[in-house]
TrEMBL record:
Transmembrane segments: none annotated. The keyword DNA-binding applies. PROSITE patterns: HTH_LYSR. The keyword Transmembrane helix does not apply. It comes from Clostridium cibarium. InterPro entries: LysR_HTH_N (IPR000847), LysR_subst-bd (IPR005119), WH-like_DNA-bd_sf (IPR036388), WH_DNA-bd_sf (IPR036390). This is LysR family transcriptional regulator. SUPFAM superfamilies: Periplasmic binding protein-like II (SSF53850), Winged helix' DNA-binding domain (SSF46785). Residues 1-58 form the HTH lysR-type domain.
Length: 296
């Protein structure tokens, strides 16, 4: 069995016509017929019922359509990976990601890149959003970062792509008066004390996000505490020092943390976006390869 036989089989299965399948590959009808017969002999099944006027797939043939498509896809991917590896392409890529993002499909992206480009060394660093943006924009550390989207449009020297949208979750201590609700409106939080993520005097902080979202529904939030890591935020919430509003990915690893209560905000538009961000004039060829994996 070879990939050409599978392609001929799929062409006949699609058209239910040996002549049109032959025309597609610029070969004779006899050649197509011989390849199909060889395939049937190897599989020891009949793939088509054929008369002078009619061609139809057998039950086995209908099943084999999906199998042939899968075989062709995986064979081509294997060839591509082998050819890439044979070129010996090597390089290095420095990649930063926001704390908690390891709980998403991010690992599969890294795995895919490593599979296609095994000779590119990856340097992965987990940090808070503010530090990631600062280091990328100042060209201190990263080729590309994965972080929460904050005012990226204001920077002319970076490109970005939205990767995922994440619902926002309100985190409460069990005795909180809202703890029994199935969902919470933003306006329900008007009189609460907030514990913010990455509170800093710059535009890339969780506090500014809480402030903006709260102002949109008519109140100025009271931000009582702040921390750069999720674990400390959850500890302060569990101690009754306030509540927190966090994206779902940030708390996936802590759903049983200190008997806290997690309640979604009940507006579909209430979400936060994670983005891939890189400098426009970054000439690192390894970054170009990584952007290919992101389909950019």
């Amino acid at each position: 069995m070879n990939i050409r036989q599978l392609e001929y089989f799929l062409a006949v299965a699609e058209n239910l016509n040996f002549t049109r399948a032959a025309e597609k590959y610029y070969i004779s009808q006899t050649a197509v017929t011989q390849q199909i017969q060889s395939l049937e002999k190897e599989l020891n099944v009949k793939l088509f019922n054929r008369t002078n006027r009619h061609v139809e797939l057998t039950s086995a043939g209908r099943i084999f359509v999906k199998e042939a498509e899968s075989l062709i896809k995986h064979t081509k991917e294997a060839l591509e990976r082998t050819q890439i590896a044979s070129t010996g392409y090597s390089g290095a890529l420095s990649l930063g990601f926001v704390k908690g993002y390891e709980q998403t499909s991010f690992s599969r992206l890294i795995q895919s890149f490593h599979t296609f480009f095994p000779n590119i060394s990856l340097f992965l660093v987990r940090d808070n959003t503010a530090k990631l943006y600062t280091d990328l924009i100042n060209r201190q550390r990263y080729d590309i970062i994965f972080a929460v989207k904050f005012h990226i449009e204001k920077y002319n020297n970076v490109n970005y792509k939205v990767i995922e949208k994440h619902p926002l979750i309100v985190v409460l201590y069990p005795d909180h008066h809202l703890a029994n609700k199935r969902s919470i409106k933003r306006s329900d939080l008007k009189h609460e004390l907030f514990i913010a993520n990455e509170m800093r005097n710059n535009r890339h902080n969780g506090a500014s996000s809480i402030i903006n979202d709260s102002i949109n529904v008519g109140f100025m939030p009271n931000i009582a505490k702040q921390s750069r890591d999720v674990e400390t935020i959850l500890l302060m919430v569990s101690a009754g020092m306030g509540i927190a509003v966090l994206p779902d990915y940030a708390i996936k690893a802590y759903t049983n943390f200190m008997n806290l209560v997690y309640i979604p905000i009940d507006v579909e538009e209430e979400y936060i976006e994670t983005v891939a961000v890189w400098n426009k004039d970054n000439s690192n060829p390894s970054l170009t390869k990584f952007l290919e994996i992101l389909n950019i």
